[in-house]
Amino acid sequence: MLNQFSRTELIFGHEGMERLKAARVAVFGLGGVGGHAAEALVRSGIGQLDIIDNDTVALTNLNRQIIATHKTIGMYKTDAAGERFHDINPDCVIRKFRTFFLPENADDFDFSVYDYVIDAIDTVSGKIALIEKAKAAGVPIICSMGAGNKTDPTAFEVADIYSTSVCPLARVMRQQCKKRGIKSFKVVYSREQPNILSEKSSFLEEHNASSEAKNAGRRDIPGSNAFVPSVVGLIIAGEVIKEIAVK
């Protein structure tokens, strides 16, 4: 009998779809990368999805975030995503956590219940804490490296963190992980040099003190577009879906 996953089943088979249906995945961060990753999981038949973010949809999110529309501006991203994802697959169990993941609240999450963890947050300290918690629980994790100020979606690749180069965020992550004895984890990154305008943008001057900048734990907000973060999110989702469906 036909169902909404019939075309996906042609690739992964009945058993693969059953594994996806039984899986529980956590997506930390619902921005340009995390939102696309989460939606791809829902459209692929993941049975349980935890979404973690404390931000609200802003006007400046419209250029890249799949949950951002004029209708959802001002909504918490977890609420906007929850409504959208239930419209796509009403049978998917969505658990919403209206919080920013930080080292200080890492123990609030039981990582042992997850089959996979997606890191789509921006702060290094949060990323490190996510990796440490996932590793301690024996749960696979895949992390997004820098997608800001990039314009070539074809340059992104999947690699181990210690095989990365050029990407400034990946460099910092390598250093911090080496100090902590973290030996390996999967990332999506690009060796493209960031594209940064030489002149100071009035947007940055207006938004450096905004909630988006403060929540990201940085002063300058990077440039973004519709076609890079989305590709990163879909690459990440593809890795998760393939590993769960064919293991």
List the helices and strands and how they pair.
Blueprint: H1 6-22, E1 24-28, H2 32-44, E2 48-52, H3 77-88, E3 93-97, E4 116-119, H4 124-137, E5 141-144, E6 156-160, H5 168-179, E7 186-190, H6 202-207, H7 211-216, H8 229-246
Parallel strand pairs: 1-2, 1-4, 2-3, 4-5, 5-7
Antiparallel strand pairs: 6-7
Helix pairs in contact: 1-8, 2-8
Structure characterization notes:
Helix 3 links the parallel strand 2 (48-52) and strand 3 (93-97). The protein is of the alpha/beta class. It has helices at residues 6-22, 32-44, 77-88, 124-137, 168-179, 202-207, 211-216, 229-246, and strands at 24-28, 48-52, 93-97, 116-119, 141-144, 156-160, 186-190. Strands 3-2-1-4-5-7-6 form a 7-stranded mixed β-sheet, sandwiched between helices. The longest helix is centred in the last third of the chain and has 18 residues, at 229-246.
